Structures are given as structure tokens and as C-alpha cells.
Amino acid sequence: MAIITTLNNSNHIFKCNEAMNELYNKLKSCLNGDFTNQDYKNSLRIELKFGIFIILQTYNLKPYKDAFFETHKKYVDFQLTIKGEECFMIGDSKNFKIKKEYNNKRDLVIYHSQKKAHKILSQKDCLCIFFPHDVHAGGLKHKKLKGNKVFKVVAKVPQELLSNYFN
Length: 167
Hints:
This protein has 167 residues and is α+β, with helices and mostly antiparallel strands. 16% of the residues lie in helices and 43% in strands.
């Protein structure tokens, strides 16, 4: 049940508790330009309260053949595009074959590529929320995208912080 929206249209998700409200404010500050390009190039990691952390990222887009399909068990991924664009491919984990079993240290399951995955084109202010069963591969090129680079924020939110909201 991935959620694809904008930060401004998702206020209600961030009002469920203090931790999520802090995350919303930090994501908003990223959109407002409070961090430098160098912060993104350095993959700056910022620890927030309640086990949430964010990572600023920038990279060149890659072709589909290099897609890295993954899920996470402990965290829900909030991925916010700050500038540039990227294509995501997503699908339900039951439709993918596992390539590498769960790595607890990295909170990561890796899957084989799946051409029948859904495509999402993410532009500035697009917020993609991926839950533990949402296989996702980002950073992909697409013929409808103009650029070749994306600046984004990846927030890792412990599942338990969202359990009351999504149950």
C-alpha cells in the first residue's frame, strides 16, 4: 500500500504523533532549501527523535537494467524529491522473487528485477511512502524525465511509530 502524494497534501499523516510532526518539519526545511548541495553529495545523515533518521542524497539516474529492488522490515521509507526527477518501480513483495534474504543489520531484503512493476515519476515535492511489503527501486531513468540527477531525502521511520495510524 505505497502512498504517493506531496508533502503539503500529506499533513494528516504527520499529525499522528510528536515524532512524525518533527519529521514533517525537517522535510519541510529540506524543501525550503535549508541544506546545501554539498550536504546532499555527502549523504548527510540526521538523527531525529524516536529512532527516526533522514539521509540527504543526490545521484545520477541509472537505466532499468541496474535497478535495485528492495524492502525493509523495521522501517517505513519516506522518500521526498527535493529537486530533479527520478523514476521508481514498485510492486507487492508477493510478486517478486527474493535474491538475497533479509539482512538484519542493513534492514534489507533484495529482490530480482520484475518488469511488471508499476512506474512512478517523482518530481519536486513528490513524497513516496513505502511500507514493508512494497518492493521499490528508485533512481531510475525514464524517457519522460528531462534531467539525469535527483536530490532527495530518505527518512527511515520505525514501523511502530505508524502502527496506530495505519491500523
